[in-house]
Amino acid sequence: MRTTTLALASAALLGLGLAATPATATPAETRTEKGIVLECTGRAAGLSASVTLYENSVYTHSVQVVLDDDPKRAGSREPKDIWSAGEVRTSVRVAGKRATVTGTATRTGAQEHVHEEVDDAGAHIVSDGFHRRLDDDLVLGYGGVRMRLTCAPAFYYRLDVTRTPL
Fold first, then answer.
1. Selection from 56, 48, 54 nearest residue 105 by Cα
2. Strand, helix or coil at 102?
3. Is residue 12 part of a domain?
4. Beta strands in the chain (DSSP E)
5. DSSP 109
6. Residue 141, domain member (yes or no)
């Protein structure tokens, strides 16, 4: 009888979310993420552009191009690869034409330590690792116009990211 009463009391508390045991808690998960971030702008022949290139070894890569700050002249996609052996090569369709980003991005300078803690999407996220500046030389081609891009920020990162459910 006593065992049944304790079992019923525990079940009731768990059902109300008032009791949890280590066996029922979701454990923290740590993954190493590495990739690049380049946020670039350019202007040529009366055309302005904003370009974002992002690679993440764990999650998706993305490229986004916005022309003349016009949402109707914007495009994005999730390519398999953007940056390899220091070479950048990617493209996206914008208003029916192909926009290409090509050039180089090489790691340079000292590593800068990174430590960040945030609560997001139901988890406490701790990132520890480093950023390292990218020296870039990129060009956007679109509709016969070629423009040099200026990128800031532009960095490579390697982070150990621990997500602990809240």
1. 54
2. strand
3. no
4. 29-44, 47-56, 62-67, 74-77, 83-84, 87-94, 97-107, 112-120, 123-142, 145-165
5. S
6. yes
In a domain, 9, yes or no: no
| Total domains in the fold of the chain | 1
Range 110-134 burial, b when 16+ CB lie within 10 A, else e: eeeeeeeeeeeeebeebbebbbebb
Residue 24: what pLDDT?
60
Query: 2 phi and psi, to 5 degrees?
Result: -60, -40
At 15, give phi and psi (nearest 5°).
-60, -30
pLDDT given for residue 26 in this prediction: 79
- Rg of the chain in Å (alpha carbons): 23
The stretches in the chain having pLDDT less than 70 are: 1-25
Quick one: pLDDT at residue 23? Answer: 53
With 0-12 / 13-18 / 19 or more C-beta atoms within 10 angstroms meaning exposed / middle / buried, residue 103 is middle
Cβ pair 54, 33 in contact under 8 A: no
Question: Residue 143 has what DSSP assignment?
Answer: T
Q: Please state, in angstroms and rounded to a whole number, the distance separating the CA atoms of residues 44 and 65.
A: 15
Instruction: Find the domain containing 40 and state its range.
Output: 24-165
Residue type, position 21, single letter: T
pLDDT at 7: 37
Quote the CA–CA distance of 128 and 113 in Å, as a whole number: 8
